[in-house]
Design brief:
about 90 residues; alpha+beta; four-stranded antiparallel β-sheet; 2 helices
C-alpha cells in the first residue's frame, strides 16, 4: 500500500474499470476528482481547498505517472509505387 502524507489521509484513490483513470474519493466516498494516466489531467468535480488540490495533484503525478500510448507506425512498403506500376505492364 502506498503511504500518503497526513494532509491527504482523508482521501483515497481508486482505479476505475476505464483503463488509465484514477478516482479521488473523500472520506464519504464521494468522487472529488478523476485523474487520467494517459494525459496527466485532473478533472475536479467538487470544491477542494487550493492547497489540498495542489498536494493531491502532485501526489497523483508522482504515484501514477503519465503513460504515453504506444506509437502507431505507418506500414512500410517493400516496393515503390513506380516499380509496381512498371512491372504490371
Amino acid at each position: 500500500m502506498m503511504q500518503k502524507p497526513p494532509a491527504l489521509s482523508s482521501y483515497h484513490f481508486k482505479r476505475t474499470k476505464t483503463d488509465g483513470l484514477i478516482q479521488v474519493l473523500n472520506e464519504g466516498s464521494y468522487v472529488m476528482a478523476e485523474y487520467s494516466e494517459r494525459t496527466g489531467v485532473v478533472r475536479w468535480q467538487r470544491v477542494v481547498l487550493a492547497t489540498q488540490k495542489e498536494k493531491i495533484e502532485r501526489w497523483l503525478c508522482e504515484h501514477y505517472p503519465v503513460h504515453a500510448p504506444p506509437a502507431q507506425t505507418a506500414p512500410v512498403r517493400t516496393t515503390s509505387r513506380a516499380k509496381a506500376v512498371s512491372s504490371a505492364r
